[in-house]
Amino acid sequence: MDSPSTTRKLKLGIVGIGVGASEILPQMEQIPEFQLVAAADVNPRVLQTFRQRYGAKTYDSIEKLCNDPAVEAVWVSTPNKFHAAHSIIAANHGKHVVVEKPMAVTLAEAEQMIEASIKNKIKLLCGHTQSFGSHIRTMRRIIRSGELGRLCALHVWAYTDWMLRPRTAEELDITQGGGVPYRQGPHQIDTLRLLGGGMVRSVRGTIGQWFKGRPIPGYYSAFIEFEDGTPATLMHNGYGYFLASELVPWGGQNSRYSEIERAAIRKSLLDGSRDENADKDDMRIGGSKEREVFRRGAPGKPWLPNDLGILVATCERGDIRQSQYGLYVHSDEGTKDIPLVGGGGPSRRGELIELYEAVVLDKPIRHTGPWGLATLEVCLAIMQSAKERKEVMLSHQVPAPEAD
Ligand SMILES: NC(=O)c1ccc[n+]([C@@H]2O[C@H](COP(=O)([O-])OP(=O)(O)OC[C@H]3O[C@@H](n4cnc5c(N)ncnc54)[C@H](O)[C@@H]3O)[C@@H](O)[C@H]2O)c1
User: Fold this and answer.
1) CA 362 to chain centre
2) Of 49, 99, 83, 58, residue with least CA distance to 351
3) Is 43's C-beta closer than 6 angstroms to any atom of ligand 1?
4) What is the rounded average pLDDT of the residues 9-37?
5) Does the residue 401 lie in any domain?
């Protein structure tokens, strides 16, 4: 994706300088068109690090951040239960909003966020899913070019250690948006919707919760059917015994925790000896693990099927999937490996550019409020279908944007 074509800086404020922020900040630092002017959090330690590192203002509440006239856009990266309230406060102060996935915990909240964005004439971007990445968008371009015939099926499959990463109390409560379906569903659903055209007709899903050390679901799987009949399946198992990265030859021991560490974490969760708050704080800015987890290695590292998983798009005359640094296209002409600028892995750059172009250049947003709400609808339908043990019909779907 091209860089923005003007040098006017977008003045950004962040609310919630947590683990998610630790991941996005290194990428924000590399885009000169962004200026971090302020942040808000309730954790004094991260506020102090933020102030020292960025020379930016810090506040102990979203309201104070939004009263700062220097802030043009607010990145909402607080726990899921606050996404709606914090986005609406920012919108009511005339700030543009990027909200982390999931957009909200309920459809009613998502509708209120959209209403606030319309009423206040601000841009609302439903951020952070892997569908912003060049790997997914290039896959979409190949599908839409028709060179492999029509799209016939989509499958995405993730085995991760998501359930073993440190969690706060709210992340361990499904009513507050905790668990793999809420947290990881949006990555796979957004991706499938972007590739499949957006309009999901129905969902049959199931969720699973079988590790006693975690009171939230660590598994889901679902069959979704698009309006045009295209089928798709999605699955995420976050329990961390087998990791899908082991399936690629370059996967090796590239995971966050070794097999021995994963077993030790499970044991400590069962016997209550893990200090999760300290472990989580270590990954936030200034913590001892921040650098190791979010700032190691140069950009362009080989792709691994981490949180999104292994994704295969099947067309009439071929399949497309991710390669080490790009995409494999398997067809009657053999297998082509198409390299991608910056490697094949996920990057938050696409999201940052989309925000910049929307606010500064007034370009249309692809990941709009209604788009985010439609993804949330699928996510909720997986959980509803699991409870009712039947297919759920959808009614809030919107088509994928025309623009690549
Ligand atoms: N981008 C990513 O890869 C990524 C990774 C993890 C999480 N996330 C998303 O980020 C969000 C937060 O998750 P996290 O893992 O960063 O959790 P976290 O607990 O590390 O971060 C949340 C931050 O919000 C702060 N906070 C809590 N209540 C607040 C309030 N009322 N006002 C201001 N600040 C408040 C906390 O102190 C904390 O620093 C979630 O929506 C999650 O889905 C994204």
Assistant:
1) 24
2) 99
3) yes
4) 92
5) no
Task: Please give the residue range of the domain that contains residue 358.
Answer: 10-130+347-369
| CA nearest to 213, candidates 261, 284, 277, 263 | 263
Query: What pLDDT was estimated at residue 7?
Result: 77
pLDDT digits (tens, 9 = 90+) for 159-218: 999 999 999 999 999 999 999 999 999 999 999 999 999 999 999 999 999 999 999 999
Counting from 1 in the atom list of ligand 1, the atom nearest the Cα of 43 is: 37
Distance 79 CA to ligand 1 centre (A): 5
Q: Are residues 92 and 212 in the same domain?
A: no
Residues 93-136 have pLDDT tens digits of 999 999 999 999 999 999 999 999 999 999 999 988 888 888 89
Q: What is the pLDDT of residues 52-99, one digit of tens each?
A: 999 999 999 999 999 999 999 999 999 999 999 999 999 999 999 999
Q: How many domains does the chain have?
A: 2
Assess whether the C-beta atom of 37 lies below 6 angstroms from ligand 1. no
Residue 60 CA, closest ligand 1 atom number:
33
CA distance linking residue 57 with residue 399, whole number of Å: 40
Q: How close is the Cα of 98 to the center of ligand 1, in Å?
A: 13
Residues 321 and 303 in one domain: yes
Q: List, as one string, the DSSP characters of 312-378.
A: EEEETTEEEEE-SSEEEEEETTEEEEEE-TT-SS--SHHHHHHHHHHHHS-PPPSS-HHHHHHHHHH
Q: Which of 77, 216, 283, 367 to mutate to test the pocket of ligand 1 (most atoms within 8 A of CB)?
A: 77
